[in-house]
Structures are given as C-alpha cells and as structure tokens.
Amino acid sequence: MKKKFYLLVLILSAMIIISCDNARKPASGQEDELIVFADSAEFYNLENSLITVFGKVIYTPQPENLFYLTRKDLSEFEKYKDRKNIIFIAPLGSQSKVSKFIEDIISPEVKNLVNEDSISVINKYDLWANNQLVMVITSSNLEKLNKNILKEHENLLHYFQKISDERLFQSLYNERFEQKKIEAGFLKDYEWMIYVQTDFYLAKNDPEGKFVWLRRSPGSDMERWIFVHWIDNASPMQLNRDSVYAIRNNLTRKYFKSSDDSSYVGISNDFKTTTEVNFLNRYALFTQGLWRMEDGSMGGPFINYTFFDEKTKRLYMLDGSVYAPKYYKKKLIQQVNVIMQSFLTGREVKPEKREELMDELED
Fold first, then answer.
1. Strands (DSSP E) along 52-199, which ranges?
2. What phi and psi values does residue 239 have, to the nearest 5 degrees?
3. What are the tens digits of pLDDT across the range 278-331?
4. Which CATH number applies to 175-362?
C-alpha cells in the first residue's frame, strides 16, 4: 500500500503547474524547522494534528522534537521560499489566501482527486531551492484535512526525514576524506562495506566474533561509535525483538566494558522501542533507546537496525551510539544513522567500486 502511495505522490508531483527557476541556490534554514504557510484560523484548527505528526519526541535522554513548526503568513512567502522544508496547508474552497494559492498551483486533475479524497499530499522537490521539499497538504474540507493528516502521519514524517538524511549525507560524504583502505578490508574479508569517515578509527576488528567497531573522538565529550555484527547460517526466526535485545546486550557486555572490567554497557529499559521498517529496501527491525553503563557512570542514545539477508543467510546488526553529556544529541544520532545507511552487502557493491577499493589494498 505504501509503495502505491509513494508512486502516486511522485506522479502527482509532476502535475503541479509551477515553473521552476533553473538557477536555484541551496535551500537554507535549519534541518528540523518546518515553515508552514497557513491561514491563522485554519492553522489553529490543524495545529494539534500537525504537532502530533511532526512534533514527535525522542529521548536522548533529554526530550527533543524531531521537527519544529513555524507558521508564516502567505504575505511573507518571498522571505521564506528558499527554506529547506516548506508546507502549504489549507482545505480547498475555504477562500483563505493559502487555499486560493493551493488551487492556483495544482492542476484540475489533482484538484478532482483531492475532492474525491483520493489524495491529500503532493510533494515537489527543488522547487525554489536545491535540496528543498515543498509539501502541499489539502482536502475538500477542514474535517477531512485533520483526519488525513493523522491517517498519513507515517508518510508525512518519512518524506521530511528522508530528504534531511540525504542532505546530511551530502555534507558528510567527501571522497577526499574517505578511508577507502578500511572499507576495502571489510569488503575483502567480510563481503560487506560501510562508508568510513576520516575522523573515525577502527577500534575493534574481530573476525572470530564477527564484530567491527568504529569510533570517533573516544574519551571526549562528543563521542560517536558504530558497530557491525553478523551471524552466518542464521535463520529469519532470529529476527525478533527479544533476540535483538539479547544479541546487543551480549555484544556490549563483551566489547564495551570499563577499563577495569567492573562495568559494561547495557540497554536501559527507559524509552526503548522496536518497530518494523524498510532499511535500504529490505525488511528490518529498528530499535532505538538509551544505553548505560551498569554502574550508572555513562549513558546516551543508540539506534539499531537488524535484518536478515536471504541471499547469504546472514543476520546483520548495525548499531550507532552517542555519548555527549553536555549537548543535545538529536543531530549527532542522525549522523550515525546516515552513515549506517551507506551499508552494502558484497553483492550490492558495484564492480567499479569493488575494483577501486581493491586497488587501495595494493597501494
């Protein structure tokens, strides 16, 4: 159902009748700010639904909102039209300025689909700036609009999270600072690879334990780390929430210990969730929560993707953690999330990329 929805949105995006300026500058603004063009009275009636969707809270352990809504009047459009994330929201036919604006920019075919309640969300990318998402949310009346916001909450959030991750990856990825020799070693020895930034170092490489640990800024007050673990000859039956918790706790008990071995990292029971997600076009379990040393001396947020690879019969676990007690950590955890999304199994690595990396091992 979701795939059909995504395809429909892509088709409808092309039907918006707005001309684009070819000389676009990069979109501006904060990643977590959504500029919402809405009539004040209509926004008042829609605000709770919008906050329910976009104001989702994650705990790091401080509560942090995924996105923040900033309502603007349509008269301020020119000032904000280059922002990264923009929403136009209004019911059709309400006679508000935003409603009339939406009616002017969508085609008659789309208008009919909206009135039939076939669609309520229309996306346009790079409309007034590069790497920008402009979203139109509309329905035939205010009541339906409120219902459709909540009905499509996963899709609405997904679109802005996805483009935010893409923008972040573009800023993180730099071939000049890519540690290709480390990546090549993973590919040669283990038949998988992941992007390794220059400021990460290989802290643990245990072939017997099938465990690799990458760390950034160890011992500092802004540390990040990623580990990859895999189980050969696994069964898809192992892909369940309890197994994820058990496998992760066993790994951190073994590898993430204090210098005197008196304490180790475990999963906190606070704010722990596991959901089913599409990770790199495959079914996966996504776990997020808090890690902590058993003695209570340290802690922070972590995210975890676990999936079964049918071709190789491997169960993979990719895990990213942050330790930054003096800082908000939402952006830091997003960084490790984006890096983990560069993961490829051996068969997914293009031949030219494999050849390039293997050449690194010969230098």
1. 57-59, 63-65, 68-72, 85-89, 121-125, 133-137, 192-193
2. -90, 80
3. 999 999 999 999 999 988 889 999 999 999 999 999 999 999 999 999 899 999
4. 3.40.1000.10
